Amino acid sequence: MELRALLYVLMFLLTLFLYFIKTRDHKDPNKRGRLPPGSMGWPYIGETLHLYSQDPNLFFAAKQKRYGEIFKTHVLGCPCVMLASPEAARFVLVTQAHLFKPTYPESKEKLIGLSAIFFHQGDYHIRIRKLVQSSLSLEAIRNLVADIEAITASAFDKWDGGLVVNTFQEMKKISFEVGILLIFGHLEPHFKEDLKRNYSIVDKGYNSFPTNFPGSPYKKALLARQRLRKILSERKEKKFLEKELLGCLLNSKDEKGESLTEDQIADNIIGVLFAAQDTTASALTWIVKYLHDNPKLLEAVKAEQKAIRKVNGEGNRPLSWSQTRNMPLTSKVILESLRMASIISFTFREAVADVEYKGYLIPKGWKVMPLFRNIHHNPAFFNDPKKFDPSRFEVAPKPNTFMPFGSGVHSCPGNELAKLEMLIAVHHLVTNFRWEVVGSENGIQYGPFPVPLHGLPARFWKESTSSNALPPHDDLTISYPLA
Ligand code: HEM
Ligand SMILES: *[C@@H]1O[C@H](CO)[C@@H](O)[C@H](O)[C@H]1NC(C)=O
Known about the structure:
- This protein is α+β, with helices and mostly antiparallel strands.
- The protein has two domains: about 35-105 and about 345-405, Uridine Diphospho-n-acetylenolpyruvylglucosamine Reductase, domain 2, CATH 3.30.43.20; about 115-185 and about 240-345 and about 415-460, CATH 1.10.630.10.
- Helix content is about 55%, strand content about 10%.
- It has 19 helices and twelve strands.
- Strands 1-2-8-5-3 form a five-stranded mixed beta sheet.
- The structure holds protoporphyrin IX containing FE and 2-acetamido-2-deoxy-beta-D-glucopyranose.
- 2-acetamido-2-deoxy-beta-D-glucopyranose binds next to α10 and α11.
């Protein structure tokens, strides 16, 4: 409560401050070109809070309706150009990416670590990205199927019995474990526990108000971050295989033969955990909701997955990589969930020079925001956009209209892993469980990624399957030669 009061006071001061710089902004000479349409009206408290705590999309959609695909505004005191068309997003993220650098609030950069991949451009970015990509390539993740399946199955089994669980929080456990697997491979349990507990303190700090008061969640998070860094640097002594991300980072040498520093390694590991956990958990939670809300579709997905389960001796044999690559309906459900939920609703860049786009000037230092969600919900690209309809993905979306994982040099290197986690989770969910969503409120919460209200409280029951009645394993190998 006190924090909230403080927040309001700070917002008030910020507003006063903006009021004073506003005049300067307006006098800003735009001799080189005209600025995009839109109002720079100083952001009053309501608007700024609205953007960050409630549904930001109403804010964007209203602006887009009024001004079109490109418009200017103020966000948290920064002059900003918002872009709501596929061409404009491509311009900023792909073709002219060198003119737009990534930009994040300083408080977030400090928590994740200044050397993390997201914050960089140029040679250093390319170097880290290659390493991250190699551990996330199809060749690498195909070896993770069995482990991901085991992680998923054991997490789901704990839900059995109809207790109310917070679906999002439970999904976070799965995406965290998979992140750890990707980075370290198999870890000793006590080490994993230390990581998990310290990381969860960092996690709480991401969404808290960034004050350095002792005892504030943000301050605690910074301290936990230092402990994580220490844990990771002690880890250096251990031998790692090249295939895990930590091994890739530890063994990397640049052309001069220089290794990465401990800070660079720690920041990127914390960064990947951050990038991987809430995003994937949010997507998984939305899938549970959409399947629940569309019973006919759920039946069809069940049929697809039960056929696979049957081939695998009613779950006695693990999923294979090739099975995960051949789940046509489930794959479309995942794509449609990503479109509907648009987990990363928009992103930020900053112009490093004056840039001209379609006759408009984007001045140096201004922020630009490609609005993914608005593009995903534009009826010109996705017919009847509010309808959950996986069959729309039977034909490929128009170029640059579908960007759940971003686009260009900073696009998500974890997209195949995320999809793999979702396929495996859906397989286990629909073949083993029935579930009920608790409460009838439909709503979205932003934390900062969109999640169904209250994390989608739900009850799960394991369905009794015929597997108990099946003959022993050996016989199955004979009865199902397809596997
Ligand atoms: C459904 C789950 C996920 C979604 C929707 C998602 C979405 C995105 C998006 C939109 C970006 C680009 C942001 C920008 O351009 O500003 C991004 C970047 C990134 N993602 Fe993901 N992501 C997901 C899962 C993952 C996973 C599982 C990992 C790793 C294991 C991961 C690692 C990263 C990294 C390292 C970057 C930064 C890349 C760079 O700056 O070059 N993501 N993600
Ligand atoms: C964080 O990690 C350290 C090991 O460096 C461990 O001693 C400590 O218990 C962990 N903290 C929490 C809150 O789990």
